[in-house]
């Protein structure tokens, strides 16, 4: 009994140290220009059986389960931060990249894998389908905080959030071709359209239900609202999966619907899921690092094969797929090249590479090892240079939007008011106005202004300046009116004259 308690306490301490080290690692990742996912995987490999030997883990079922759960959390957090007004103009090219682009990438990589790995054609297409899609976790993590043009950022986020169903469909379909004697091809095609359509419908429906519930149901604690929202994310995935539809697509759509709705407790929900999303990333990549065997992956045959496939993927397959998928869409060549370079691979291909192992496919261990090294190469080469490429192509721009955060009061659930936090930019109409001249609703009051790190107590003659952060107490029913006033943008002289005419 005492021995079991000591072992459990040691395990808890190890988990605590892994969490602390992983969070510290994120600080170094930004300084080194290396995506944090690479360092998380390195931590997992370090404490695994082939490293220091602290944890022995080789269960593909548990690795897949943890990977899927983590992807749900990460997709949900990323989807809630996606603004519909930003992705609406790029929905068509994003879907083209997520479907046609994935098929083209799969085909080109399969052709290379056939001759590089010396495997059969169906197995080669399995490799292509596994690495065919970009990864939402990697894309969301790398683009966060980068000043890439909103159009390109929205395209990449929408593509990575919607291309997983195509990769999952192709992977499972090819595994069926390898394991089942007779496969109905027409049935597989019909299944794809069902997965996409039903996943979209379920996600939109549950997203609407979640938004309604979050606003209408008055819970006793603000900490329950983020958990309430997370429950709808898992409901969306499980409902879609039970209907044989795409669960990951449903989760992303649910998150977009919730994130673009007027939520009374948005700040608490977003802040919780930001931290929980990081937790999911850390857990997922450490588990994947534990699952992989460095002594098998980092051998010359695997590294050479993985590097060759990575080079084909990065410099041939992805560029060709991007250029062909975006024919007819309004992107410059520089923007297309950037979208091609920013197509990161991450957790999704590694999780998909576990599927052949679960199905008992021949050469499944070889496929997993090669895919793992390919993903690692993609993350290191592309992920560490995205900012440099964007600056080199002059695709970095000032953020015109300024987020409005709602800070819920301590007496949440009892007070019908919220505290809005708003960052003022030079383009806002309110710049230069005195508080006494602002047409705020009766039940709205500017309580504080942060300027150059100092707190300013506002009074009637206080003038708003660019760079100020305003804290406004407002009744919930007047929140839309206040947001409209704050977000109003100055018109250029030419636009102003045109609007008057």
Automatic annotation (TrEMBL):
Membrane-protein topology: Multi-pass membrane protein
The keyword Ion transport is annotated on this UniProt entry: yes
Protein's UniProt keywords contain Ion transport: yes
Localization (cell): Cell membrane
Taxonomic source organism: Halobacillus faecis
Gene3D superfamilies per UniProt: 1.20.1530.20, Regulator of K+ conductance, C-terminal domain
NCBIfam families: PRK05326.1-2, PRK05326.1-3
PANTHER family according to UniProt: K(+)_H(+) ANTIPORTER NHAP2 (PTHR32507:SF7), NA(+)/H(+) ANTIPORTER 1 (PTHR32507)
Descriptive protein name: K(+)/H(+) antiporter NhaP2
Residues spanning the membrane: 12-30, 37-56, 62-82, 94-113, 119-143, 164-180, 192-210, 222-239, 245-264, 276-295, 307-331, 338-361, 367-390
UniProt entry keywords in alphabetical sequence: Antiport, Cell membrane, Ion transport, Membrane, Transmembrane, Transmembrane helix, Transport
Record lineage: Bacteria, Bacillati, Bacillota, Bacilli, Bacillales
GO cellular component: plasma membrane
Domain RCK C-terminal: 407-488
GO biological process, one term: proton transmembrane transport
GO molecular function: antiporter activity; monoatomic cation transmembrane transporter activity
Gene: nhaP2
One Pfam match: Na_H_Exchanger
Main location per the UniProt record: membrane
